């Protein structure tokens, strides 16, 4: 793999995505083989947004690979308090072997990648969440086998999760349908880019305001919270706008009988998903949560191994 960074799934080929999946599967099955894979290396973890799963999975992942993770909150560094991203990237590159950033503005991560001499991993931005989308497709691969020609349906806000799932679908050979209420459609540039990738891969990208159209014959159904971190002021308006958009048993009935349900968590039962769905045998949310560890370990290994 020739990539220095992991910023968007779009940047990676289908073969490279498959390679990451195969390494993640091997790491999950035989973790002892990789106990010194990143021995003596340090990952700086920049968190403008807090997260249970992102922090724990990256920190534990580095430990299991023989390295060390350093947590840096917005209170711990000068980024955002006057120091240019250029300087932060240059200085951190002298101290650490890799940088993971979970930020608000996507530009923060892209600028870190531009100026850092060490690998930069996008842990989440307002535009995309590629490590989670990679995890979702890896989990689907585990449960369903070959993903070519299968369909993933996303129901809810056209947010960073929707974007990264759209970027990822053509890379694994899946069709994707994104259903959102009016006014909450995904970014047009992301849609156009994903569509171009899908045209090359022979897959379909559907963006619709119809839940039934999106979920019909889907093999995977997924959703996300209606108001993401940083959108708290819009929560009441979004509650009204998303009325009727809960993934419940009626919605799941449109999917294939053997379809699985996913959610990146944290979830709000009774809002974007009904308890009868997220806590049902069709739900693989805890496999999905665990797999963040394995997929991110594979990404760090591919970027940081010497």
Question: What keywords describe this structure?
Answer:
Rossmann fold; alpha/beta; 306 residues; 2 domains
Commentary on this structure:
α1 (14-29) crosses α12 and α5 crosses α12 (285-304). It contains twelve helices and nine strands. With 306 residues, the chain is of the alpha/beta class. The chain has a five-stranded parallel sheet with strand order 7-6-5-8-9. A four-stranded parallel sheet has the order 2-1-3-4, with helices on both faces. The longest helix has 20 residues, at 285-304.
Secondary structure elements and pairings:
Elements: H1 14-29, E1 42-47, H2 52-64, E2 68-73, H3 85-95, E3 98-102, H4 106-115, E4 120-124, H5 130-144, E5 151-155, H6 160-172, E6 175-179, H7 188-201, E7 205-208, H8 211-215, E8 220-223, H9 235-241, H10 249-253, E9 260-263, H11 275-278, H12 285-304
Parallel strand pairs: 1-2, 1-3, 3-4, 5-6, 5-8, 6-7, 8-9
Quick recap:
The protein has 306 residues and is α/β, with parallel strands linked by helices. It has helices spanning 14-29, 52-64, 85-95, 106-115, 130-144, 160-172, 188-201, 211-215, 235-241, 249-253, 275-278, 285-304, and strands at 42-47, 68-73, 98-102, 120-124, 151-155, 175-179, 205-208, 220-223, 260-263.
């Amino acid at each position: 793999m020739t990539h220095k960074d992991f910023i968007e799934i779009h940047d990676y080929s289908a073969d490279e995505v498959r390679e990451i999946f195969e390494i993640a599967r091997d790491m999950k099955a035989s973790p002892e083989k990789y106990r010194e894979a990143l021995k003596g290396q340090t990952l700086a973890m920049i968190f403008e947004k807090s997260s249970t799963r992102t922090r724990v999975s990256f920190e534990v992942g580095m430990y299991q690979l023989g390295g060390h993770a350093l947590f840096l909150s917005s209170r711990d560094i000068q980024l955002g308090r006057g120091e240019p991203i250029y300087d932060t990237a240059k200085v951190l590159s002298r101290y650490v072997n890799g940088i993971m950033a979970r930020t608000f503005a996507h530009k923060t991560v892209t600028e870190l990648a531009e100026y850092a001499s060490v690998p930069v991993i996008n842990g989440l931005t307002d535009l995309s969440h590629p490590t989670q989308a990679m995890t979702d497709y890896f989990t689907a691969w585990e449960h369903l086998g070959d993903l070519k020609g299968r369909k993933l349906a996303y129901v809810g806000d056209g947010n960073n999760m929707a974007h990264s799932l759209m970027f990822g679908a053509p890379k694994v050979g899946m069709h994707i349908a994104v259903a959102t209420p009016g006014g909450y459609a995904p970014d047009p540039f992301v849609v156009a880019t994903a569509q171009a990738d899908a045209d090359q891969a022979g897959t379909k990208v559907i963006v619709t305001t119809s839940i039934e159209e999106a979920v019909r014959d889907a093999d995977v159904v997924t959703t996300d919270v209606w108001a993401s971190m940083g959108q708290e002021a819009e929560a009441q308006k979004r509650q009204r706008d998303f009325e009727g958009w809960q993934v419940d048993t009626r919605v799941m009935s449109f999917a294939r009988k053997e379809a699985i349900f996913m959610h990146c968590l944290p979830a709000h039962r009774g809002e974007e998903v009904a308890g009868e769905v997220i806590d049902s045998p069709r739900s693989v949310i805890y496999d999905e949560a665990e797999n963040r560890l394995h997929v991110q370990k594979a990404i760090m290994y591919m970027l940081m191994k010497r």
